[in-house]
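Q: Is it fine to ask for two folds in a single conversation?
A: Yes, each is treated on its own. Send the first.
Q: Here.
A: Result:
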Amino acid sequence: MLLEALSSVILGLGLAWAATRRLPHRLPARALVLSTGVAGALLGAFLTQSALDAGNLLTALFGAAIVSVASLSLLLRPAGRLRGRSATA
């Protein structure tokens, strides 16, 4: 269990670091991104462990990666200005 948690933290940090290196202009502060990646990975590993009751480390890491990426994607801002037309014009 401790190995799963530690592996999930490392995976979450790695994914968050990769996101900050790849998309720095579309993400908020680095500390928020790193903590969100770690929290998402821990939550994903916990959910996978609870739902599947699997003792397999790879299954827990797969769930951790999915939830971590999903939570990091919620932090993304739009790339440019929105080009929608105004209804009042």
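Q: Second one now.
A: Result:
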Amino acid sequence: MASPPASPNVLISGFGIASTVFAATLLRAYPNATITIVERDPAMRLTGASVDIRSSAVDIIKWMSHEPAIRAKTTKETGVEFVDDAGKSFATLMATGNDNIQTMTSEYEIFRGDLARIFWKEIEDRVTVIFSETVESYVQKMDSVLVSFANGKAAASYDLLVAADGLGSKIRGMMLGTSVGQHIHDEGVYASFFVIEKDLLNGSKLAKWYNTTGGRAIFLRPDPDPRGRTRGHFMNSAWPSDTAARAKINAALRAGNEAYMQLVEETFADVGFHQTPEILAAMRSTPDFYASKFAQVRAPRIQDGRVVLLGDAGYACPGIGTSLAIMGGHILAGELLQHNLDVPAAAKAYEDLMLPYAKSEQSTLGDYAMQMLNPQSAWGLWVRNTVLWAVTAAKIDRVAVWMMGWLGLEEKKIKMPVYPWPEVKA
């Protein structure tokens, strides 16, 4: 068998959080690594919802020395208040102030684009990025993987091919010999995200969460932009048995933004929340509308020799997906270092550590939790609202957080190996 290269030549498909964390971490281990990223879009996508950082990912951003920059760019959201038609709050869940025990509002609530920029800034002059390009096919050889491209880039060989190309990863389908959608588990929750060029929260740092029948919800979240803006979200959910509703929403997602906005307008036209007309109008004028579904990727494997699935491509999981992407990027780079660039061995070690942890976060219970938080019926809404009011009025939520802190109970973390990272020069 050929000896490992002195520094790796890596191709990453997909330009996002998982890929930039992996690239940055690999460059700490191998400063002379050659890293190429191909991205199907014409530019880095910086739109989308706020994301949060939890569990072992918190330790990683601290290790990367990015915590101060991330805290500086957080949304400053202090909690979530549940409101009625008139916008009056009946229950509020506050952030904890403890990054080891977090509620709906994370201590690191940050917009996806801002987080991506922070990771990218560390490596922007050390990585080659090719936009409007995708992987067409690949062939594995004994000591390399030969990759062919779809849009003009010449075929080339790499030591490792990393698929960080998201929920609909073509490379996952190639690697597993299945259709792209076979291992996607649709949770039946669909959301759109957009900027509202007005502060609809009137300076408050509490997000507003409004629900009505039919599993429909409206979110208003604070935006730290000093110009005074709000982030708006429309969300609707459908039970697994409601195949017609799911098919209709998925068809609109596939058709693009215009089709999805029309669906939102149709779905929310009769909603009684007092700010609905203004939010619908803002959706139409936003410069960065984005829509997606909540879905898990339940891949049986996340590696095959010199091909690896990273982040959402291998183990998408709403709620903790960004944290899994950060963990995965760190662990994959760490295993390459630990195994002295024996790529197949490192990939297997990465899978053995990352896949069981990701699967433990992907319980079907999460589907029902979202459905219970966004009920279909008036009766379901009454029950949910009553429970939320009782829990917060009695401060049960705060007592529970205090007890967890007192007992030293933290969020479940992955058993991270101690990798032999070289010292970072000041």
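Q: Anything structural to flag on that second result?
A: Two points. Confidence is low (pLDDT under 50) at residues 399-409. The first helix runs from residue 17 to 29.
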